[in-house]
């Protein structure tokens, strides 16, 4: 049945917030080096990660093994969201002084307001609540085991581990290049802050993250964007109460600020993807409507393997995505292209 819309109310959207700190980079570095299956997909080569493992202390290596076993990098990220820490000492003092229940609660992942009572009960070692929280998060590859760990680990063991691994990683890995790293993060923060005034919230999030289409959710009022260098080219997504978080990869321009001719890596990917006759035809076909692979091959009269190759490149550039088993054009990605080029030409 058709609906006659007489409402004057516009669809609500979220507000975008930006933050940066080398402390986020530290926690994400710990997450990266302990995510062994993902290491070879990161921008930094395997030789970089091998050299870190060869240069750091044995004690830190042992704690990284503990991180890999228990995913305590998640606890570090959760804690970093509690306040704006001024430095590593501020963070470690906070962990040391936190009481047992508060620290466990902070470390547990947020899974929705309606489950906050279960989250509270879980830290009391309520077996039914822990079981329920694990069930709620069962589609996540590590949350259930992580929840069990946080609810049962001896609190001083957890505190000592978190303090040592974060402090040691910062001192041994981040601090030697902290000035350069902080400048890169600051450059990206400033560039994003400037562009935020020129785009809608949804358009901006898609641009900053290289194509993440995040539509407003009823319980999410803010999107927090945190630039990171160590996990390029990946975006990392997290949930807080009322906030969606994206730790997004910094741009090429932020890494090479003195080269005014250095284009943004996402812009390069888009332009390369669009610089082909077949791919432009596909874009126009998908602008008209979502289509299956079969539909596209019929329209273009090309082989499936050829069309699939072009679609793969368009997807890599975050111009095309798959929705309900069909290929769909990401309109935000196309709409923001002129603003991205304008920003590049006038920087």
Summarize the structure.
This protein has 347 residues and is α/β, with parallel strands linked by helices. The chain folds into two domains: 15-249, no CATH class; 265-345, Arc Repressor Mutant, subunit A (Orthogonal Bundle), CATH 1.10.10.
What features would you describe in this structure?
The chain is 56% helix and 9% strand. It has two domains: 15-249, no CATH class; 265-345, Orthogonal Bundle (Arc Repressor Mutant, subunit A). The chain has helices at residues 22-33, 46-55, 58-70, 73-80, 88-97, 100-107, 116-122, 127-136, 143-152, 155-174, 178-196, 201-208, 252-255, 265-274, 277-288, 293-300, 304-316, 331-335, 337-345, and strands at residues 15-18, 222-228, 236-240, 243-249, 320-323, 326-329. A hairpin with a 2-residue loop joins strand 3 and strand 4. The strands form two sheets. Strands 1-2-4-3 form a four-stranded mixed beta sheet, with helices on both faces. It has 347 residues and is of the alpha/beta class. It contains 19 helices and six strands. The relative contact order is 0.12.
Features:
single chain; two-stranded antiparallel sheet; alpha/beta; about 350 residues; 6 strands; Arc Repressor Mutant, subunit A; 4-stranded mixed β-sheet; 2 domains
Order of strands, main sheet, comes to 1-2-4-3
User: Helix count?
Assistant: 19
- Helix percentage: 55-70%
* Portion in beta strands: 5-15%
Domain HTH arsR-type: 259-347
Organism: Evansella alkalicola
Pfam families: HTH_5
Protein name: Winged helix-turn-helix domain-containing protein
């Amino acid at each position: 049945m058709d609906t006659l819309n007489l409402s004057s109310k516009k669809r609500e959207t979220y507000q975008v917030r930006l933050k940066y700190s080398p402390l986020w980079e530290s926690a994400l570095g710990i997450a990266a080096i302990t995510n062994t299956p993902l290491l070879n997909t990161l921008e930094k080569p395997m030789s970089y990660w091998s050299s870190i493992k060869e240069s750091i202390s044995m004690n830190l290596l042992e704690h990284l093994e503990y991180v890999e076993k228990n995913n305590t990098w998640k606890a570090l990220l959760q804690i970093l969201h509690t306040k704006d820490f001024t430095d590593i000492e501020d963070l470690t003092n906070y962990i040391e002084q936190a009481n047992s229940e508060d620290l466990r609660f902070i470390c547990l992942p947020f899974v929705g307001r309606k489950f906050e009572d279960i989250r509270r009960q879980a830290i009391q070692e309520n077996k039914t609540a822990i079981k329920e929280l694990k069930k709620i998060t069962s589609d996540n590859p590590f949350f259930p085991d992580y929840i069990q760990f946080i609810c049962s680990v001896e609190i001083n063991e957890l505190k000592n581990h978190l303090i040592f691994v974060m402090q040691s990683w910062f001192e041994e890995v981040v601090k030697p290049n902290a000035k350069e790293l902080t400048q890169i993060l600051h450059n990206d923060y400033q560039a994003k802050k400037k562009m935020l005034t020129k785009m809608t919230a949804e358009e901006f999030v898609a641009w900053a993250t290289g194509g993440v289409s995040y539509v407003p959710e009823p319980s999410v009022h803010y999107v927090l964007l945190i630039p990171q260098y160590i996990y390029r080219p990946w975006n990392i997504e997290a949930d807080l109460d009322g906030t969606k978080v994206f730790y997004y990869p910094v741009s090429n321009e932020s890494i090479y600020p003195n080269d005014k001719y250095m284009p943004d890596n996402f812009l390069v990917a888009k332009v390369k993807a669009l610089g082909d006759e077949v791919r432009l035809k596909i874009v126009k076909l998908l602008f008209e409507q979502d289509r299956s692979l079969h539909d596209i091959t019929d329209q273009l009269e090309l082989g499936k393997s050829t069309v699939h190759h072009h679609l793969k490149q368009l997807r890599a550039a975050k111009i095309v995505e798959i929705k309900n088993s069909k290929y769909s054009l990401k309109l935000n990605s196309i709409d923001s292209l002129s603003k991205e080029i304008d920003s590049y030409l006038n920087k």
